[in-house]
Amino acid sequence: MREKTERIVREWGDACDAEISIAVLGGAWKPSILSLLGEHDVLRFGELSRLLDEPTARVLTRQLRELEDDGLLTRTVYRQVPPKVEYRLSDLGRGSMPLVDALTSWGAGYAAHQRRELARLDPEPEGLDAVVAH
Amino acid sequence: MREKTERIVREWGDACDAEISIAVLGGAWKPSILSLLGEHDVLRFGELSRLLDEPTARVLTRQLRELEDDGLLTRTVYRQVPPKVEYRLSDLGRGSMPLVDALTSWGAGYAAHQRRELARLDPEPEGLDAVVAH
DNA sequence: GTAGATAGTGACCGAATGGATACCATGACG
DNA sequence: CGTCATGGTATCCATTCGGTCACTATCTAC
Lengths: 134, 134
Fold this sequence. Notes:
The structure is a homodimer. Chain A is mainly alpha-helical. The first copy, chain A, has 7 helices and 3 strands; from the N terminus they run H-H-H-E-H-H-E-E-H-H. In chain A, a hairpin with a 5-residue loop joins strand 2 (73-78) and strand 3. Chains A and B meet through helix 1, helix 2, helix 3 and helix 7 of A and helix 1, helix 2, helix 3 and helix 6 of B.
């Protein structure tokens, strides 16, 4: 477990269990990483990087390490050259998939709602720009 | 909408809808605030403060303003002295309750799992300390 | 001998965030 | 006149976090 997560798990009571979820899942790329591993079962570092929008190695590594420390995924290193490292979901990680899906669909609904609001309040004559995935 | 939320809603694509949810719900006290308003229907500033663990007024105000800006709750000011301000969920806020509940129950399960792990790896002879709510 | 592929690490930076402390405006009440 | 209650604001600080840039180790293939 990450030190941060451990502190939360040890010290916080039931009043804020939701914040535990957010502490664990709430990092840049983390929900996307979990979704991808839910779909692909096993992915190498480079594959993950390409499927996401190529975050810098530094950032991706940090996210993966945190998810590993928090027990959501496993990292398998093959001692060979060039290196090969595989990531896959742990049981805990698989258990988080329904929540990740819930986050995704509520977020999508929220974004759609707010985009309608924006269009209503602030109509742009230009056509919609292509929406670029993060 | 908060500027931050608007940027996310405008610029991010569907790849990371989950991160929209986290941007909106992921602040200190926010899930707790939403839960309390789900239970109590309407709460004044001071009542909220007492039901939570008395965060500083500065912090609570900021969380409430952000939730209001993001459209999850409404703020009603009665122009009287001493001041009276009521907070309640908006439709958007009510719609977030299932997600908040999902966050809470996954977080609780995760914490329980990890506490078992901690106890297994690092058995403390002392009795359990009372767990203090955040 | 040098280029390429893979999976990183280390040092650093700017912005955002939680939180502490001090202060404020108003009217009722005694 | 002074005090209390309510719902804040202003200022500041330390930490965290995403991100950039430079750098590395090792073997294979040319």
